[in-house]
Write a structure and sequence with these properties.
Helix content: 25-40%
Strand content: 25-35%
Distance between the termini: 22 Å
Shape: globular
Largest sheet: 9 strands, mixed
Structural class: alpha+beta
Length: about 270
Amino acid sequence: MTVTCNGQPTQVEDLLPALVNYGHFTSLQVRGHAVQGLGLHLARLSQATHELFGSELDTTQVRRWMVQALQQAGLADASLRVTVFSRRFDFRNPLVAVPVDVLVAVSAPVALVAPKRVRSVGWQRELPQIKHVGTFGLFAERRAAMAEGFDDVLFVTADGDVSEGSTWNLAVHDGERLLWPQAPALRGTAETLLKQHWPGVQLTRPLALAELDSVKAAFACNASGLWALEAIDRHVLPGSQVLAEQGRAVLAGVAWQGLGSDPFCAAKGI
């Protein structure tokens, strides 16, 4: 893995503010210097920067740093994590708007496709609409589920409604339509793209955990892939693999946007 901060090799002092655990990020897959839903990722970063730091994010510059990081790593296909934090942030005076810093981490590409069995648990992330770096709770819940023989965890609100997985969104099929749970959760880029391009009937509404006993199929999705859910708790979902294959076919038809499709990168021949 290679990591840069504001386009420069990362120094120890660059990482010290990250220990405050106040910041946000987006993770994405790059293939041939292109990204699916690039605009969604950049919008996520921009909105969260404004909400957490009261400042504006130069997304054009962020794209340049992403391309530069890929070049330095010598990769056209990769996993990228773009983290926004601030070396000027003062937790004693958090209302002051501060300029932000951007870490870009480049690692090998991944594609998540293996089916999983998940366990439901009553839990909700803080500020679930933001992809923030406060991930302790969700990973602790995932670890607890794995200790009981499951592959991952599905979160349920205090009202008994399904919200999201540890790092993914959920869709289920009731035999007639695709259902997206409506509850406080991080709305992922893959979920948004699937909603935009799904060819069949779909609906977004509150989905009680008890209703899952009547569904036949479900899949999980995030920017790293889409995979079938074989079972939720003790409820086996026999149609999940077929549904997941349909979802992957939909995503395969979504265009990839080049990271270098701006004047700076065009001038560099990228």
